[in-house]
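Recap from last week: sequence in, structure out.
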Amino acid sequence: MYKKWGKRMLDILISGSLLILLSPVFVGVALWVRLCLGSPILFRQDRPGRRAALFRVIKFRSMKDASDSEGKPLPDEERLGRFGRFLRSTSLDELPELWNVLRGQMSLVGPRPLLPQYVSRYSPEQARRMEVLPGITGWAQIKGRNALEWEERFRLDVWYVDNLSLMLDLKIIFLTLWQVLTRKGIASEGCATTHEFMGSDDRD
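Predicted structure tokens:
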């Protein structure tokens, strides 16, 4: 019953309430982004959701628009300054995703929505992470976030799919607040954000 109806009701209740309660924070962060990074304030990108259906995720922009002589974006390490690192470490950049939750494109809790090109690189077992809506936070996030290897993240995502419940979601939400306060697992070792997932050996 929770998986079919209750989870969506919880998403609407919490995301709608937070969008109203945190509106001053939204305005403040938006002005801060405008002053530090300029326009656009929001970052939009297509991501695969449930059953790999694409939707446009919305975040506050945290990287500079900087390109090399050929017009290619510079590496994340060079585009992510102190301001952007602060936004990411506090998860303030994720706040606009509450709108994705309210629209039914995401859930508060679920596997994180990754890049579209990763879908063809998943093994059949890893692809099961797309059986549910992607989330702002998830089981893999509270277990290590970007500090985990990809295979471990996907294993935790699939475990969540198989064990989804109200109590588990509430536990993840509570532990996410602690994770944000401690700012652990923000980036992979030796990387400003996370390494690209190139696929597993067991994709066939």
